[in-house]
Amino acid sequence: MTRLDGDMEEPADHVVQGCTRCVDLVDHRSQIVNGQGADDTELLLIGEAPGEAEDIAGVPFVGRSGEVLNQSLEARGLDRGVVRITNCVRCRPPDNRNPRVSELTNCRPHLENEIAFVDPRVILALGRVPAEELLQRDIRVTDEVGAVEHVELGGHERVIVIGLHPAATLYNRNSMGAFEEALDRSIELAGLAHRNS
Ligand code: URA
């Protein structure tokens, strides 16, 4: 946290305020949805972009996908405050469309600031959009879910686990196993397994 004269605090770089880079998103958003959770954790979960519930609450993953995520974390003895959760894009795309390449590019510095700030051992990409954004290649998530890759981000090598988006489990209950497998791998690699056992 940097300080101004008079002891007023400025937001840290990873907390975005008043960004106007994406005209289409600025026009439709209620607010910017910054990451939430621990500042200092070994596991960072990255989703795509806020949906309606997140746009209203100003917090990532609080809608139905968030319920799946919370329940899966809790089943493993983890409160979501123990990890950190953020998105590739911090403003809700209209009609929940996918973020555009230009929007991912505009929001990328914010994401990189947050990754650098948290400095996690492991990043779990929740679905195709964050997996492709982090790994910079085309990905068929159903074929690669659970895969672990190492990439250089902001001058540091990061461990990326390819995961399913929790919404996938709402459309297809059979995908719960794959969703949990990637989550379990991430928790294990982050050293957070058996915290409460
Ligand atoms: N889906 C996402 O990718 N992110 C959210 O914050 C909510 C739903």
Commentary on this structure:
This protein is an alpha/beta fold and 197 residues long. It has a single domain, classed as Uracil-DNA glycosylase-like domain (Uracil-DNA Glycosylase, subunit E, 3-Layer(aba) Sandwich), CATH 3.40.470. It is built from eight helices and six strands; from the N terminus they run αββααβαβααββαα. It has helices at residues 23-28, 52-57, 64-75, 101-118, 128-135, 141-144, 166-171, 176-189; strands at residues 36-37, 43-47, 84-87, 122-126, 148-153, 156-163. The protein has a six-stranded mixed beta sheet, sandwiched between helices. A hairpin with a 2-residue loop joins strand 5 (148-153) and strand 6 (156-163). The longest helix has 18 residues, at 101-118. Bound molecules: uracil (URA). Uracil is lined by residues 47-51, 54, 60-61, 63, 65, 87.
Helical residues, percent = 25-40%
Strand composition percent: 15-25%
- Please outline the major beta sheet: 6 strands, mixed
Shape assignment: globular
What is the tally of helical segments? 8
Radius of gyration: 16 Å
Total beta strands? 6
CATH class, named Alpha Beta
Alpha-carbon distance between the termini? 35 Å
Which architecture would the CATH scheme give at its second level? Answer: 3-Layer(aba) Sandwich
Small-molecule components bound = uracil
Find the CATH topology.
Answer: Uracil-DNA Glycosylase, subunit E
Number of domains: 1
Order of helices and strands: HEEHHEHEHHEEHH
* Largest sheet strand order: 1-3-2-4-6-5
Instruction: Find the structural class using helix and strand composition.
Output: alpha/beta
